[in-house]
Amino acid sequence: MKQLFVTNTKRFLLAIALSVTAVFGVATPSAQVEAQSPAGVLPMPEITIYHLEGRRSERLVWLMEELGLPYTLNFTRGDLAASMAAIRAINPAMPVAPTVTYGDQVLVESGAIIEMILARHGGGRLVPPLASPDFATHLLWIHYSEGSLASRAIADYRVWQIQPPQQRSPLVDSEGVVQFAENFLADNPWFGGAEFSAADIMMLFPINFAMNLNIVNKAQFPHINAWISKIEARPAYQAMLAKARPDGMVGSLPALPANASRAVTP
Ligand SMILES: N[C@@H](CCC(=O)N[C@@H](CS)C(=O)NCC(=O)O)C(=O)O
User: Where in the sequence is the domain holding 182, given as residue range(s)?
Assistant: First the structure.
C-alpha cells in the first residue's frame, strides 16, 4: 500500500511550534508556509521526503515533526524495493534515502538538507545560539554522524561480516568513534550541548546501527543508552515512528555475532 502522508500544520507564524495533524492526501499549495517572518524563516516550498522504513530518511521526518512543518512522506509500507523504485524514478543517478524534493529541486544528504531547512525555515530552533560553545559542537556532531561514525561503523560491519576482528585497528575503529560520543554525553545532556538539537537527530541512526548490529558492545556505553531513552520519550520522535515506521523495522540487516566487538576489547 502506498503511503502518502501530508502533515497540515496551522500557519507557521513567528517561529512558534504548532501542532501537527497527519492526514492522507496530496500536498496542496495551501499547505505552503506563507508567513512573512523573522530571520531564519523563509516561505517554504512543498517538501516531499522519499523514505525507506528504518533508514536515514527518518531523520527528515523527525526534524519536520520537531519543527511542526508540513511535508509529504512517500514510501510503500513494508516494501523497501518498491520504496526504492520510487526514489530511483525521481533520482536515478543517486538513488538513496533520504531523497527530498524541495520545490523543484531534488536533494540528497540528510545533514545538508537538515541544515538548509533549519537555516531557512527553523527560526533558530534546534540550533544552539551562534555565539555559544554548543554551536561549534552541535556542528561537529552533525558532520561526525556521517563523516566519522556512520562511515567507520559501516566499513567495520562490511569487513567483519567477512572476517571477524582479531585485534584493534591502529586507525580509529567503530568502538573509538562511539566512545568519543559516549565521552561527550558524560558531560552534556545532548549532542546539541545544553539542549536537544538537530545534532541529536543526526546521531541516532549511526549509533543504533553500531549498537543494534553488534558492531560495538552496547553495554559499554551507559550515557548513550540513557540518551536513547530520552530520545524515545520525545513526542516528535514517537510521531515519526508512527508515520515512518508504522509496522516496526522492515528488512533489518543481519547483526554480527554478539561477541564480534568484544573480541577486540582490550
Ligand atoms: N550520507 C547520506 C547517506 C544516504 C544513504 O546511504 N542512505 C541509505 C539508506 S540509510 C541508502 O539509501 N542506501 C542505498 C544504497 O546505498 O544503495 C545521507 O546522510 O543522506
Answer: 133-264
